Amino acid sequence: MAGALIGEAFISASIQVLCERITSPEFIDLFRQKKLDQPLLMKLKMTLFTLYVVLNDAEKKQIENPAVREWLDELKHAVFDAEDLLDEIKYEALRCKLEGKDQTHKLTNKVWNFLPKFHNHFYQSMNVKIQELLERLEDFVQLKTALGLREDVGRKVSQRTPTTSLVHEPCVYGRDEDKDYLSKVLLSDDASNDDVSVISLVGMGGVGKTTLARMLYNDHKVKEHFTLKAWACVSEDYDAIRVTKTLLESVTSKPCNMTDLNLLQVELREQLKGRKFLFVLDDLWNEKYSDWKCLQTPFTSGARGSKVIVTTRNQSIASFMQNVPFHLLKPLSHEDCWLLLAKHAFGNENYSAYQNLEEIGKQIARKCNGLPLAAQTLGGVLRCKKDSEVWNRVLNSSIWELPYEKSDILPALGLSYHYLPATLKRCFVYCSIFPKDYEFNIEDVVFLWMGEGIIPEAENGERMEEVAKEYFDELLSRSLFQKSGKS
Ligand SMILES: Nc1ncnc2c1ncn2[C@@H]1O[C@H](COP(=O)(O)OP(=O)(O)OP(=O)(O)O)[C@@H](O)[C@H]1O
Ligand SMILES: [Mg+2]
């Protein structure tokens, strides 16, 4: 099983999937009918969780401790067996349901009387199997203590500093075309209906969405065009009151102590009445359409031509936010990445005096694959270091080897992974079996996922292949997969 090669991230996601399944309405329904032993299943869930919290620690310790390595390996098998057992229960429950419907029409009373006994027997044997699995997992729990594995639920999701509208980039590279196109859209007043135009900037973490939004917000023509402007950093913990309050305080330039959303919205609507405004809602993660509808209610009182710029990594959010096509931010060219890296590495010093470093630097820039965040981080690592040996070391090491705490890259990109549902996490982690920079086809990935058994059956009878394709699209839409140049 390829999953066995992938490691802790895959088991973590598998355990999450298992826990979700145990508490799914389908299983809860089986408890209600008293077919499965509910306390036993809950115990199974708690035991899985007890193991889940030490997986990070185990992953670190396995390098030096072969016993931990073996523990992890065996645990993988137990988790896969647990998955098979739940599959078996699910399949049987489904079969009973279908047969039940069918048999009521066809079976004589005699045979019909026999069926419940057969099913009860099945569930009893399942209860025995769950008990056995539980005992097997409890052995892992005992061993974890003996091996000294400790709770480590992993890196906390970083609390990112809120973004602001003030430009802090020494220079912005490679975005002139995007800027020209988008400022034209911003300056046009031809909204086709009464809704405020929403322009969504979409792209993977660190590609420069906020930077571009900031450029537009501070452009002098744009400044002149709008009567009111406001910037709100929305971020992961969406809070309608906080965002509305920020917008209101910006347009009135006064602090506001209202805490009631209704009062805030009424006041904001009053302030916007008949005035042309530009709002930036930076870094949207919330996927609830109704929340967005509620947030934008006061916006409709603004004058025609008012605009909202939204930045997000998720195309699905963009598609319900926007009423003009969203703007996909492409990675920078290698040349722009190099200029950006050099700016951070050399500051205002002219790098042409360091030809040997320029050669190595250009190769390092290629490794950034057009991601400005990576170019900036590596430029920062090389800042004031004029020794070609140091530059070569960076060239020959992986970006991922930078200490987590010192790099902005992993925390920024890790966020996209953190917010994935567990089933999608497994599919994503599975792709780590591909070599770096590998270009894969949707069909190949879909078949591999299906072969690996990591695509759950759809409740609505949709074919597994369709579900897998939807997962692929979802990862693409969340900017975790990138379309290759050829597709
Ligand atoms: N075109 C560019 N030229 C120079 N620096 C850039 C450019 N684009 C981005 N940067 C720098 O790269 C870093 C990441 O950019 P930014 O914060 O705009 O990315 P993002 O797409 O908004 O990421 P996230 O999805 O995490 O919000 C920033 O520090 C920014 O200064
Ligand atoms: Mg951003």
Automatic annotation (TrEMBL):
Gene Ontology biological-process entries: defense response
Protein name per its UniProtKB record: Disease resistance RPP13-like protein 1
Domain Disease resistance N-terminal: 11-104
Entry annotated with the keyword Nucleotide-binding: yes
Keywords: ATP-binding, Nucleotide-binding, Plant defense, Repeat
Domain Disease resistance protein winged helix: 433-484
Ranges for domain NB-ARC: 193-349
Organism encoding this protein: Prunus avium (Cherry)
Organism domain of life: Eukaryota
Family annotation (InterPro entries): Apaf_helical, NB-ARC, P-loop_NTPase, Rx_N, WH-like_DNA-bd_sf, WHD_DRP
Protein encoded by which gene: LOC110772379
Secretion signal, residue range per the UniProt entry: none
Keyword ATP-binding included in the entry's annotation: yes
One Pfam assignment: Rx_N
Gene3D superfamilies: 1.20.5.4130, Helical domain of apoptotic protease-activating factors, P-loop containing nucleotide triphosphate hydrolases, Winged helix-like DNA-binding domain superfamily/Winged helix DNA-binding domain
PANTHER family according to UniProt: DISEASE RESISTANCE PROTEIN RGA3, PLANT BROAD-SPECTRUM MILDEW RESISTANCE PROTEIN RPW8
A GO molecular-function descriptor: ADP binding
